[in-house]
């Protein structure tokens, strides 16, 4: 899986990222890549809104198709915090985790404490070869934590 150079070293151009993964460079793909870079951990609706600001004619289906294709190509990472819509980010391939606010749903990155995959060792693998472990920390973001109690 490629590491997104957007967050690791010199930023790669979106068209270059697509070509490196053997994908055609299209306006919807560029708009979606830009949206996810601008709004990390965005859900599909937020990606659509941002993409339409740059490309007003892009359809809902096109955005979903692009999100799926870019995730399959390893250009985007899809995370699915329990009880929340899927979110997308360009930070891929570095074994990081997430912290999610129980109140507002804000998501942020948390670097892996172990440094390599998988971060957790299961008590039994049932014969599987474990490649990754997704860790989600739950709590309150600073804004929600500082709200006065009712």
Automatic annotation (TrEMBL):
Keywords, sorted A to Z: Cytoplasm, DNA-binding, Iron, Metal-binding, Repressor, Transcription, Transcription regulation, Zinc
Binding-site residues, Fe cation: 116
CDD domains recorded: Fur_like (cd07153)
Cofactor entry: Zn(2+); Mn(2+); Fe(2+)
UniProt cross-references to Gene3D superfamilies, sorted A to Z: 3.30.1490.190, Winged helix-like DNA-binding domain superfamily/Winged helix DNA-binding domain
Subcellular compartments: Cytoplasm
UniProt KW Cell inner membrane keyword: no
Gene Ontology CC annotations of this record: cytoplasm
Binding annotation for Zn(2+): 101, 104, 141, 144
A family per Pfam: FUR
Cofactor: how and how many bound: Binds 1 zinc ion per subunit.
GO biological process: negative regulation of DNA-templated transcription; regulation of secondary metabolite biosynthetic process
Single GO term (MF): zinc ion binding
InterPro entries membership: FUR, Fur_C, WH-like_DNA-bd_sf, WH_DNA-bd_sf
PANTHER family tied to this protein: TRANSCRIPTIONAL REGULATOR FURA, ZINC UPTAKE REGULATION PROTEIN
Family (UniProt): Belongs to the Fur family.
Name by which UniProt lists this protein: Transcriptional repressor
Organism: Cellulomonas triticagri
